[in-house]
Amino acid sequence: MGVAIRRAVESDREAVTRLLDEAFQDDPVSRWVFPDADHRRRTHHKLMGAFLDLVLSEGRVDLTEDGQAAALWLSVPAGEPGDHEGGVSGDHEAEDDGPAQMREAVDPDNERVELVGRLTGAVHPTGRAHEYLLLIAVTPERQGEGLGTALIESVLDRCDREGLPAYLEASSARSRRLYERLGFAFTGRQVDLPDGPQMWPMWREPGTTPAVS
């Protein structure tokens, strides 16, 4: 049975922010950015909302019809490696200092909000237009049912038709294995968060045959 997918709109913002907040509360990168659990519960939703606002404005948010999973995609032109990393505005000046603006908007005293954007932006591939999966979230009680895979594959099918690569950063070894099964490969330049977890940038060429598990 297929998964019904639609494009999210502004009226979905509150529900999708809540979904992202819930799904990423215990993600290794979120725990590093907000190491204090109480502070994370109070503040993490602001970071998720800022990412969502960016993608609602400049990209595409795919949402399962039941609202249990969402994928945030940005179309990155050639020559713009990490302009959208941690950015909250589409103008060029803002893009240049997007991570600092993100920190100011979300948690001004928390330098890690800015640092994660700068570190991931520094390794973002350049030179070729591609689809960038910024975030994908499945509500915790529905994880493992294939909703996230369905959301990703719907865009990868289009990438294959249009000859576009795709890119993402895996934030855990488990998610890295999932993306490898979808045809993504580690770029060889990992992100080492200071005193924190690793992230694995991953690239998929169009037409890549998924790995057999």
Structural classification = alpha+beta
Q: Extract low-pLDDT stretches.
A: 87-95
Overall shape: globular
* CATH level 1 class label: Alpha Beta
Protein name: GNAT family N-acetyltransferase
Pfam families: Acetyltransf_1
GO molecular function, one term: acyltransferase activity, transferring groups other than amino-acyl groups
Keywords: Transferase
Concise structural overview:
The chain has a single domain, classed as 3-Layer(aba) Sandwich (Aminopeptidase). Helix content is 43%, strand content 19%.
What attributes characterize this protein structure?
Acyl_CoA_acyltransferase; 213 residues; 8-stranded mixed sheet; GNAT family N-acetyltransferase; Aminopeptidase; 8 helices; alpha+beta; Trichothecene_AcTrans; single chain; transferase; GNAT_dom
Account of the 3D structure:
- The protein has 213 residues and is an alpha+beta fold.
- It has one domain (5-78, 106-204): Aminopeptidase (3-Layer(aba) Sandwich).
- The chain has helices at 13-24, 28-33, 37-58, 92-96, 98-106, 111-123, 147-162, 173-181, and strands spanning 5-7, 60-64, 69-76, 130-138, 166-170, 185-186, 191-192, 198-204.
- Strands 1, 2, 3, 4, 5, 6, 7 and 8 form an 8-stranded mixed sheet that branches.
- α1 (13-24) crosses α3 (37-58) and α5 runs antiparallel to α6.
- The two termini are 21 Å apart.
Topology, please?
Blueprint: E1 5-7, H1 13-24, H2 28-33, H3 37-58, E2 60-64, E3 69-76, H4 92-96, H5 98-106, H6 111-123, E4 130-138, H7 147-162, E5 166-170, H8 173-181, E6 185-186, E7 191-192, E8 198-204
Parallel strand pairs: 4-5
Antiparallel strand pairs: 1-2, 2-3, 3-4, 5-8, 6-8, 7-8
Helix pairs in contact: 1-3, 5-6
GO molecular function, one term: acyltransferase activity, transferring groups other than amino-acyl groups
InterPro entries: Acyl_CoA_acyltransferase, GNAT_dom, Trichothecene_AcTrans
Keywords: Transferase
